[in-house]
Structures are given as structure tokens and as C-alpha cells.
Amino acid sequence: MTPAAFLSLTANDGWLLAAAFLTALACGLPGAWLVLRRMSLTGDAISHSVLPGIVIGFLISGSLDSPWLVIGAATCGWLAVMLIDRLHHVGGVREDAATGIVFTTMFSLGVLLMRRYAGRVDLDPDCVLFGQIDTAIHGARVTIGSLEIPGIVASSAFSALLAITFAAILHHRLLASAFDTPHSRMLGHAPALTRSLLLAVTAAVVVAAFQAVGAIMSVALLVLPGATGLLIARRMPALFAVITVHAALSAFLGFQLAGLANCNYGAAVVIAGAGLFVLTAVFAKIRA
Amino acid sequence: MSAIATAAVAAVLTGLLCGFYGTFVVVRRMALTGDMISHAVLPGVVAALVWGGTRNPIIVLACAGAAGLLGSFAMRGILAHTRLKPDAALALVLSVFFAIGVALVSMFQPSGAIAFLYGQIAALDGRDLAFLATATAATFALAPFIFRSLTLVSFDPAFARVLGLPVRAIDTAFYAALTVAIVIAMQAVGVVLVTAMLVTPAAAARFCTPTLVRTCAIACVTGAVGALAGVAISDLRTGTPTGPLIALCLAALFALAALFGPHHGRLPTRARRARNRRRIAGEDFLKALWHYEHGKPEPTAPATPSRAVVRQLAARGMIDTSAPAPALTPAGREAAAGLVRAHRLWETYLADVAEYPPDHVHEEAERAEHWIDAARMREIADRIGTPSLDPHGSPIPPAAGQPGKEDET
Lengths: 288, 409
Description:
A: mainly alpha; ABC transporter involved in vitamin B12 uptake, BtuC; two-stranded antiparallel ribbon; 13 helices; B: two-stranded antiparallel ribbon
């Protein structure tokens, strides 16, 4: 008896769980660094600002699983952070106000582009706020070897792979630049480049999360695993372990919750993740 | 009233209301707290729509307020009981509360939720409009009385407490009023773009004026104009969503203010800097000519002035360019002597009073000479007893209009 059969899951449920887990994991890895660097709200700004990039990438390629989406999103995410920096340092606008202005403007541009050009094709405007993980699982499939897997699982697997590669290769640079920027500079690490790469990877993984759970709930996927990990972990390996467990548990518990309450799966994943966060906080409080 | 007239009136009123509260949101640096509130109220709004059945603005507002309060408590709890920083706490509360709202929407599919999620200014009915008008009228009727206290509490809560103001009560009232404004703005532009309604007009206004009262007034007007423009464009091009258009119109107004705003706007600042650079280059050139006339080359040779600078000096009658080599006119000679006097007085002051070593004073004076006016020169001369020689032994030219006792030439 396979584990899936034991839990009385259909193949589609399995794919759904896989997509949610991989998306949460992909967001959780760069998200943890954002939380550590006190840049959670930059993550918020990026998750909204990638929309025009996604729409333009979609218009160029005509498909939701194209690398153009990732390129467009990463460009727009980087552009948003650049604009916020410039408004703050050159224009003298306070950072919070600059963030608010830039992300709302980019988001509006994205919505308008989407309504104007992509309304006739299968880019669903509701996906911006709700995500479409429930429906996308039945959508187009890609064939890898002898395996036929849903497109959204493939794209979330790709972004998880990207996030893991990024976190593994740049681990020491991320560590040094997050905790001790001057030290990182002395080691010859170029902390500014590390930061830019972190932002670009965040924008890239947000593309998959955007399709799965929408713009706002991707912020939860970015911040929740890292925040939960930081409640109990004292060292980076433990933090990454907690992130992985948190992603898996929220995907699974969210699935149960969505089945019970008959609600949007993406929202259920986030609510389950928030429940885990609260439980962890209580546990950490009691232990301390 | 026709739909477009309703939308136009609603846009203007919402713009005015958000401009007013947004000013304080921006000066208190809580732009992203506003964003958090707009997401945190969503579960309350949806619950009210499910429970109340109809879109009664009072019920919606009460439930939204309760949810917003819950969001603030959650945030305070995270900050008090975990090591997480405010940015993570904000992001968590914002996204999780929104997720709860989305879950409720997908469970009960209440009618009218779309208006709050995406904003449908055209869907507002007479009751909404009456409520909006009441809120705006109340705000502006109370504004003259609350403005001063709100300003004090926003900028310096400690001082406000010393003055005996009820700081906590004012803060709570501000949060409550802000929540009302946010719930209203949500119906116009949608949950994500409320931040644009609140923050963008006020941030634009700060480029136009240094005072808070005028910032507030300009923010209100900007908000109303931007919202109205968004409604108008969306009416011209039917089918385009109003919320994003309003946000983009506001962003365009912000860009205009950031470029042309008289207070720290990019171009006025650049123009002022360029004017100062030209003035300094011209003054340096006058001084160089003066030194040349006195047969003493300057210790540091000035850069060759641009043709524009020379033309400007000639137009002001400072130099005579009829000969191949430019020469000082009497007016120019007087101006140059004033500069040299300022330079040498400041050198003397630095060496004698501030006890700088004499070989360190020239560079300082080279900068200061352009900013010391006649009154300041008199003050310095009085302080140091009107000496006739500077620390390097060069004579200090007398003040304009006094007989020259130093001129050995």
C-alpha cells in the first residue's frame, strides 16, 4: 500500500500536495533570509510588483510555464526595489511611503495590462488575489520522461530547485552579508550583489507562488516558514529543517482544512501555516 | 443621480478623506501599517457581508473595525512575545488575515465581496454615498479643532503628554478614523490599492510645501483630482478597471510633484544648485581679476569660467568684455573687494578666535566667502576688532563705501 493510498488520496490530490509543498519550500528559503535581514516588507513589495513582469512574459510567450515569466518577474522585482531605493535616497521620500507608492503603481500597471491584453486568454484576473492552485492542477500537463505531471507542479518544482540551489551555493555569502556586511565586504563577497541576487531569486520564486496563491498570500509563504523557524532554531541548519517541515505540514494540514471547510486551498495552506506559527510560538514561550 | 455622477462624487469625497488621514499616515511613517490595516479588515468585511446579507455600511464598518483591532492585537502579540521584528510581524498579519478573508469568501461566496477586493466605485449606492459624505463632512468639520493635537501627537508624543494631551485617546481615535477611511477607500480602489489612496497624495504634497497644514490641503486636493481623473479615464475607456487607473493617476501626480515640486522637487533643487554653482564660479572669476589687477596671483587658481558665467557677469555690469581680455568695472571691483574682504576676515577670525593653524584657514575661507553677506561681515569685523592684515600678512580691503587705507597699488 502506497502512502498516498493509505491517506485515501487521489493522484490529483497528490499533485496538489506536491505543488503546495514545493511552492512553500521555494518561497521559504529566500523568505528566511528576507526575515533575517528585516526585509520582509521588501518581499511584500516584490510580490506585488512582479505582476506586470508576469503579464508581459505571458504576452511574449503565450504560456504560463515559460521562463519569460520568471525573467519578466525578476526584472520587475529588481526595478521595484531600485525605484524604492532611489525615491528614498535621492528623492528624500521616507522608505515606507516609497514602498507603498512603488508597489501599488506596479501592481496597477500589471492589472491594467492584464485586463487590456490578456483578458481574452486564460490568464485569470482572479488569480492575482486568490491564486489558482485548485484549478491549475487540472490544467495543462508537461511530460518529463515517462511521467506526465501538471504544469503547476513542474513550475513549482523548478522554483524549489532554483531556491535550493541558490541557498546552497550562496549560503556563506548570504550568511556573512546578512549578519556582518563589513566582514562580507572584507572577504571579497560583494554584499550588494548578494542582496541583488536574493531579491532576484525572491522575484523568481514568487512567480510560481503568484499562480498558486496570488500576490498577497505569497507574502505569507515567504515570511511564515522563516518566521516560524526563527522562533525555535538557533542555527541555520535547524532553521532550514524547520522551514522544510513547516512547508510540508502546512501543505498537508491546509489540504485537510480545505477539505473540511470547502474553501480555497491556497488560503487554507496559509491559515494552516499560521496555526503552526502560533503553536510554535506557544511552545517556544513555554520552553523558555 | 447617474452612475458616472455617483462615481465622480464618491471619487472626490474619498480622495479628500484619504488625503487628510494619509498626511498623518505619511508623517508618522505608518504607510505600511495602513497597508496592514487594509488587509486585516478583510475577514471582518466578509463576515459582515455573510452575516448581514446586505451591504449595510454600518455593520460592515463595525465588523471591519473589530477585525482591524484583532490585527493590531496580533501584531502587538508577535512583537511582545517573539524575537521577530516589526517588518516580519506586519507582513505576517497582513497576509494571514487576508488569507482568512479569502477562505471566508471562497466558503460563503457573499455578494458584494468583489467590491471590497477589487474596488467598484460605480457600484456604490445612495446609502454608501450618504455615509461617505457624512464621514468626509465630519472629518473636515472637526479638522480645525483636532489638527493641532493630532500634529503634536504625531511628531512628538512625549511633548504632547507633557502638555497634558490624552495621547492614547487621540491615537486610538486616529486609528478608528483611519480604519473608516480605509474601509471606504477599499470600495473605491480595492484592498491592495488603498495604500496608494492614502500614501501617494500625501507623499506628493510633501514635495510642494514644508508646512503640515499646506501638505494636508495639497494632499486632499491631489487625492480628489487623482481619483476623479481615474474615474474619468475609466469612463472614457469602458471596461478598464477604475482602481488601478486611480492609483496610476495618483502615481503620475506624485511623479510630477517629485520632479517639479517647489520644496525639494528634483528640478527646482537642481536649478537652485546650478544657480549657486554659476554664482560661485562668477565670484571666483571676479576675485581672480581683482588679484590680477593687484599684481598678486591667487594662491589657488580658479577654474576657467564658462562662457555663460562671463556673459552673466558682463550683463550685470561687473566686467567689461569689450577688450580682448576682460577687465573689472568699478562695480565689479567693489564686488570683488567685498569677496576678498570676506575671505580675509574669515581667515583672521578662524586663526585668531577659533585658533586654527594659519596654514589651514585658506580652504575654509575659500568656501565661506560666498555665503558671508555684508551684515555678517560687520559682525565678524566687530568680533575681531577690524584688523587691517589677514593671517598671511595680506591687507584686508575696507568695507564698501569706506576710504581705502590699504591700497598700495
